[in-house]
Design brief:
CATH class of the largest domain in chain B: Alpha Beta
Organism (chain B): Runella defluvii
Keywords (chain B): DNA-binding, Phosphoprotein, Transcription, Transcription regulation, Two-component regulatory system
Strand order of the largest sheet of chain B: 2-1-3-6-7
Oligomer: heterodimer
Pfam families (chain B): Response_reg, Trans_reg_C
Number of helices of chain B: 8
Protein name (chain B): DNA-binding response OmpR family regulator
Largest sheet of chain B: 5 strands, parallel
Number of domains of chain A: 3
GO molecular function, one term (chain B): transcription cis-regulatory region binding
CATH topology of the largest domain in chain B: Rossmann fold
Shape of chain A: rod-shaped
Chain lengths: 418, 225
């Protein structure tokens, strides 16, 4: 749920409850006030009536026309001295019931105790209550809508820097040189938040950069001593007087240094791809490149007695830096040859949407989903450094290509699709 | 043939120059930009091997000033950076080849020789080794005047051998020479063996002496000794 929807919802429920309560309370208060007023007037009239009796000791119904006074004989037991009740009476002119408030008391008229009821119409006051209530309801609803609208607007504005920060954070890419650009909002909390994010972003980029530089520098620096070892070993093996054991020792040193060089080159390449150091993309026909590479590796393929099938070779075209396309194809083909068994097959299937290179081979030792991880080796001896597939994966992810691996029926298939 | 090695790593410069001297070159070394600059100013070289990262300057500058003075000198760049931009830039300012460290001395040697061949005789030179005659321009090989039909890789292999006579070549260096740097399979070493076997057979068929020797399984040597 969105932040604004949530606050609006809470606000709406809460204020509706408050307004309802306030409306009811208001209605009750007005009603009490009006009743109080009417009752007071009834009491005044009762006094007037008693005054009149004191003087005349008689009651003619001609008096007090407006305030209906009814004098009737006492029926039943005499109750409390006076009491108020609500009643409905039929109007004299219009055939409808109108509410009245009445005061009943007992008076001695001409020596006889009579029940006297003084009534006062409530029709006016009821209308008053209705109008007041209606006006109030309208006002409250307007107020509710108004504040609701206003609150929506104002919180939209207040939270704007927050959403702005959020979207900038989403677009932030720590691999790019561009620092995290954030506004300086008026609200202190948001400014603090942005400040924290800015510092974090800077730190992340800095760490990323130094890590990157370290990898690169380390790899570069390693190349020269490796070249030295290689050169010295090459010189060493030229000596005729070496014994067989010595040659074996030298051979091992040589192999290890070659492997290290290869490893180092692989890591450097990965770092360069990650750092987007290959800039110029070209339109490359990957199918043609793969077919050429398979032709180039003819001797290898022939040596392992592999059979190559080219199926449906409609070109699959990609946008890649040429050097990386070369690496991609090299690694794919090397992989298909290396992990093949003798007299196996290699199949190339290409459509404009995707290109698949499949090879027969032994079942995987490691789980397929970990195949593209660095240093994941399938036990092909000391000459393999386990970076080939990681490099393929890295190239694909950095240039918007999909790489999929499927296995079945003794076939291993790598598909690249755009 | 005079070669100048510009490389700040002393051990490496020594190894290269020793290897070159054994191959019959006159070889000098320079460890700094300044020294190299002076040498190319004072002497003429057939080939200059330049490391791009020098403690007191950039190899590119050196190549530029060299090319201003003498255009016939061949230039091979050796660099720890395997960057396409560097290769392109190197070629643009007049270098002939680019080798990424670490490299095989035998590979460097083969490149130097091929470069000098191309420069001095525009490729129209023949390579002769006893009864073997190679015409690089037409990629043809003759043994005692008879044409020996070799496959593309066998031809490359023979040329590599002829560039490194009497030198032990490791199997890895042969494999990389034939299939490029990316070759990284154990199979490649076996296939080197099978190619050498085929080359040997084809040469022997034409009555050639067997010059190829296996050296303890570390590599092969082409030559008489």
């Amino acid at each position: 749920m969105k932040l604004l929807t949530k606050t609006n919802r809470i606000y709406l429920t809460f204020s509706t409850a408050i307004y309802l309560f306030a409306g009811l309370a208001f209605y009750q208060v007005i009603k009490i006030l009006i009743y109080d007023e009417v009752e007071n007037r009834l009491k005044v009239e009762k006094r007037d009536f008693e005054q009149y009796l004191k003087i005349h000791d008689n009651w003619s119904s001609g008096y007090f026309v407006e305030n209906k006074i009814e004098v009737s004989p006492v029926t039943g037991p005499i109750q409390a001295a006076e009491f108020f009740t609500d009643t409905l009476m039929r109007s004299r002119y219009e055939d409808e019931l109108t509410p009245f408030r009445q005061l009943t008391f007992y008076a001695t008229i001409g020596g006889v105790v009579r029940e006297v009821t003084i009534r006062k119409s409530l029709i006016q006051t009821f209308r008053l209550i209705e109008i007041i209530t209606a006006t109030m309801v309208v006002c409250l609803v307007l107020l509710l809508i108004g504040t609701f609208w206003f609150q929506g607007k104002s919180s939209g504005r207040i939270w704007h820097p927050f959403y702005e920060t959020l979207s900038r954070m989403k677009n932030f890419d720590l691999t790019h040189e561009k620092p995290l650009q954030l506004d300086k909002p008026e609200i202190d909390e948001f400014e603090e938040l942005n400040e924290v994010f800015r510092k974090m972003g800077e730190k992340m980029q800095h760490d990323y950069r130094s890590l990157k530089e370290f990898t690169e520098n380390a790899s570069h620096e390693i190349q020269t001593p490796l070249a030295l070892i290689n050169a010295k070993v090459e010189q060493l093996i030229q000596h005729a007087k070496l014994s067989e054991t010595q040659t074996h020792l030298i051979e091992d040193i040589y192999q290890a240094s070659r492997r290290m060089a290869r490893l180092n080159q692989g890591l450097l390449l990965l770092a360069k791809i990650e750092n987007h150091q290959f800039t110029t993309n070209h339109t490359i026909n990957l199918t043609e490149l793969l077919v050429n590479k398979l032709g180039d590796m003819e001797e290898m393929i022939h040596y392992k007695q592999l059979e190559v099938q080219l199926e449906n070779d409609t070109p699959f075209v990609v946008e890649l830096p040429p050097a990386l396309a070369e690496t991609l194809v090299n690694n794919l083909v090397n992989n298909a040859i290396k992990h093949n068994h003798a007299q196996g097959q290699i199949r190339l299937h290409s459509t404009p949407q995707q290109i698949c290179l499949s090879n027969t081979g032994h079942a995987l030792i490691s789980p397929p989903e970990r195949l593209f991880e660095r240093f994941k080796k399938e036990g092909t001896g000391p000459d393999s450094v386990g970076l080939g597939l990681a490099i393929i994966k890295e190239i694909c992810t950095n240039y918007n290509l999909q790489i999929n691996y499927t296995v079945g029926d003794g076939w291993h298939q790598f598909c690249i699709s755009s | 043939m005079k070669v100048l090695v510009v490389e700040d790593e002393k051990g490496l410069a020594e190894s290269i120059s020793e290897y070159m001297i054994k191959e019959g070159f006159v070889c000098e070394t320079a460890g700094t930009f300044l020294e190299a600059d002076q040498r190319i100013y004072l002497y003429d070289y057939d080939c200059v091997i330049v490391d791009l990262n020098l403690p007191d300057g950039n190899g590119f500058q050196l190549i530029q000033s060299l090319k201003k003075m003498l255009t016939t000198t061949g230039v091979i760049i050796i660099s720890a950076r395997n960057a396409l931009e560097d290769k392109i830039k190197g070629l643009e300012i007049g270098s002939d080849d680019y080798l990424t460290k670490p490299f095989h001395l035998s590979e460097l040697n083969a490149r130097v020789k091929s470069l000098i061949r191309r420069r001095n005789f525009s490729g129209h030179t023949e390579i002769e080794f006893h009864e073997i005659l190679v015409q690089p321009a037409s990629r043809k090989v003759y043994v005692k005047g008879q044409l020996a039909v070799l496959s593309r890789k066998e031809y490359d292999l023979l040329l590599y051998f002829l560039s490194n006579v009497d030198v032990v070549l490791t199997k890895a260096s042969i494999a990389e020479h034939l299939w490029g740097d990316n070759i990284d399979s154990v199979d490649s070493l076996d296939i080197v063996y099978s190619h050498i076997k085929n080359l040997r057979r084809k040469l022997l068929e034409k009555g050639c002496t067997d010059y190829v020797r296996s050296v303890y399984g570390i590599g092969y040597k082409f030559g008489l000794s």
